[in-house]
Design goal:
alpha+beta; globular; binds calcium ion
Length: 300
Amino acid sequence: MSNRNIRISLGLVAAAGGIAGAQPVIDGTIAGDGYGSALSVQKVQTQFGDNLSELDAAYARVQGGMLYLALTGNIENNFNKIDIYFDSVAGGENVLSGAPGNDNSGAMSGLTFDAGFEADYHLILRRGFDGSTNRFDLDYSVLGTASFSSYGNVFGGTQEGSGSTGTGANAFPIALAYDNSNLGGVSGGDQASDQSAALAVETGVELAISLADLGLPASAIKVLAFINNQNHDYASNQFLGSLEPPQGNLGGDGFGNFTGTETFNLNDFAGDQWFRVAVPAPGALPLLALGGLAALRRRR
Ligand SMILES: [Ca+2]
Ligand SMILES: [Ca+2]
Ligand SMILES: [Ca+2]
C-alpha cells in the first residue's frame, strides 16, 4: 500500500468513525449508543439484592469534551449508593481523607484504593421515596477539598427517567438517567457470576459529565464504581472493576464486618478495582479526516 493510499484509508476510517459516532443519548440504556465493548464486566454474583443492587458492566466513551458513562444493572430504591470515583489527573487520594464528607461519605475515611489509583473526583447516586417525594439524587465532589454540590430529585418527582443537575462545584450540568427494568444480569450470591448474562443487560445508570469537571484529563480516566449502603459504611460485593469470586460483601472492614466506617484496602483483593477510559487527543480524528479528504482531492 502506498503512503497515499494509507492516508486515504486512515481518512475514510476517521470519517466513518465521525459519522457513526453520534453522541450517546442519556436515557438509561446503552442501546443504539455505540459505546462498543464493555470496559469492565461483573465477575461476582450480587450479595446486595438480585435485580435490586447489582452492577453488571461498565461502558464509557469520551467525545466532544464529555465523558459518557453507563453502568448497567440496578440500584435499590432505599437510598443505597452508587459511589463512583474518578482518577483523572495527577495526584489525588489513594487513601480517602474523608473530605468533603458530603452525604456521610466521611465514613469512608481510610478506604484504600489499589496502588496507582489516586482519586480526584467523586459522584454519589441514590434513589428512593423520602416520605413525600420519589427522587433520584446526585452528589459531585472534589476529593480532599470542601467543594461539593448535592442535587436532589434530578428527575423531577420520579425514581426513573432522565434529567440534569444545575451547576455549583461542577461548572457544567451533569446529565443523568436511570432505567430500572433489568431482571437479568448476575444472580444472587457470592460465587462466580454468569458474565454473558451480565453483558446482556442494557439498562441502568447513564450519565454525561464535562471533562472540565474532571480536571481536563489528558490521556485516560481511571474509574471505580461500587454499591454501598445508605451510610457509606457497608460496601456490597458489586465493584467495577470487579472483585474476584468467591467474594461476599466487603462491609466496613473488607471482610463483611460492620464497623461504622469503611477502612478496607483494595490491595487486599485480587485484580484492579478500576477500569480505564481512553481520552482521545483533542482534534485527532478531525485532523485525520481532513488529511484523508486532502488525499482524496489530490487523487482526483
Ligand atoms: Ca443511552
Ligand atoms: Ca488522580
Ligand atoms: Ca485490588
